[in-house]
Amino acid sequence: MLMHPVVKDELFRQDHMDALGRVCNLVSEVPFRDRDAIADYLGRIEVLITSWGCPRIDESLIDQAPRLRIIAHLAGSVKGFIDDAVWRRGLQVVNAVAANAVPVAEYTVAAVLFANKRVFQLNQAYLKFQENRSPWTREAPNVGNYGKTVGIIGASNVGRLVIDHLQHFDLRILLYDPFMTPLDARKMGAHKVGLTELLSQSDTVSIHAPLLPDTRGMIGARELALMADGTTLINTARGAIVDQSALVSELRSGRLYAVLDTTDPEVLPSGDPLFTLHNVFLTPHIAGSLGDEAQRLTDYIIQELERYQRGQVLKFQVKREHLARLA
Fold first, then answer.
1. CATH number of the 5-95+292-325 domain
2. Strand, helix or coil at 286?
3. Is-same-fold flag (5-95+292-325; 101-282)?
4. What is the pLDDT of residues 186-219, one digit of tens each?
């Protein structure tokens, strides 16, 4: 295991360690932090279990590990710490992105339903007036989920799971993803459209694209202006996908609403307007795995190692040809 010890304590229960013991022989139950510490073991290691806090795995490390066959990353993105040499040497790489997608999708679905129900606005109205103004349509025009249109930007692991969850509700789902075909979208229960159409027709817009050079600032002033009055923008992906200054301008006008779990920068400076705008629901990047949800990541990786041990097809493999469009 190559990770920060605190990460290991957070992610592994005793039954996880017992399960690992049945599929492999750990050289140590205490994780290693750096290459020097693991150097004496590299010659006989077949599996590396990595997570947050692990050093970069490059060609020089692989040269010292002739028996290495698989890297199982107990977290999300593998970019930034796994060198391309890993794939060139034919090593297999798996990660727990699919596990982390589950709570993010749950957060998103809750945000979509609350946004259309105008829960955030009606909460403030009730606190202000302290009386029942039913049916509240004066304070919250166009309130309700029935027949609303939800726009999903990006058919990522999270985006696909959100679309699947939303099939249970009376909603129309639009999808913008340049890598998806209309048929692929229909099979998921969505309609593939261009970004302009999605933004102009959706009651809520939820971002699930990776942060890449092509997606940085993809939702700017022009795109925000396409959104109808009262639309809610939900971002659980990366803050830099949205031009934050343009978003603040629209929010200050009162025209749009936002549910933001990610911002740019990730931790906002004191006094940032997003802290005080009444039409923003702000959370500190909590949509991903927290608390006991982190155990799911370990479950997924152990199940993957069990498949590897049995010689079965791996379910959560990270393929080299997909790296360019992965977070």
1. 3.40.50.720
2. coil
3. yes
4. 999 999 999 999 999 999 999 999 999 999 999 9
Mean pLDDT (the chain) is 95
The residues that are catalytic are 238, 266, 285
Q: What is the pLDDT of residue 268?
A: 96
Residue 325 has pLDDT above 90, yes or no: no
Indicate the length of the chain as a whole number: 327
Residue 324 has a pLDDT of 78
Contact 200, 225 (CB under 8 A): no
Query: Which CATH number is 101-282 given?
Result: 3.40.50.720
Q: What is the domain partition of the chain in residue ranges?
A: 5-95+292-325, 101-282
CB-based contacts of 198: which residues, under 8 Å, 6+ apart?
151, 153, 174, 175, 176, 205
Which residue is listed with tokens 């205490």? 30
CA–CA separation, 178 and 186 (whole Å): 15
CA–CA dist 312, 310 (Å, integer): 6
Which residues, at least 6 apart from 64, have a Cβ–Cβ distance to it below 8 Å? 39, 42, 43
| Radius of gyration, alpha carbons of the chain | 22
Using the Cα atoms of residue 263, residue 267, residue 272 and residue 275 in order, give the sign of their dihedral. Answer: positive
Summarize pLDDT for 44-82 with one digit per residue, the tens.
999 999 999 999 999 999 999 999 999 999 988 898 889
